[in-house]
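Feature request, filed as a ticket because there's no other form

It would be nice if the structure record came with a short human-readable summary line next to the tokens. Right now we just get the raw output. Example of a typical job, pasted below so the devs can see what we mean:
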Amino acid sequence: MPVFTALPSDIVAAYRAGGPDAFGNPPERAVSDGDGNPCRHCLCDIPAGAPMLVLAHKPFAGTHPYAEVGPIFLCAEPCTRGGGGAELPPILTTSPDYLIKGYSDADRIVYGTGAVTPTSQISARLDQIFANPDVAYIHVRSARNNCYQARVDRPVDADD
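Raw output as currently delivered:
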């Protein structure tokens, strides 16, 4: 079963402490309106009235043509890291569809894997993409704004 992976807690802690985003800027502080503000750390929507961070994030190490940068939201207050299992995180249940695409271990898009996928078909699509041995991991993004939502890692072989 694929594993949904939230942003690492150390990266989120650095952003919360005012560390620079992908463009070298400190995260902006805002208040969630409760509608469409998914935290990429707890993988839940940030409740209305709660403080949040808005920043540019690049979910890749290094820079290269495929290292997309985009806006994300984070809970401004500490939250428990989400993911770690095969269950669809709460932030991936609020839209009718998502953009899903596979990446190689060199952080390059594996062409032919990208597709806007209905939410009800995400699990099946992840299995199809991971059937390609060239895919090391998958990103789930907003189908409308291309914002990074979460990473999905290849299933771990029980024999390992």
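Something like this underneath would help us a lot:
The helical segments are 9-16, 122-130.
The longest helix spans residues 122-130.
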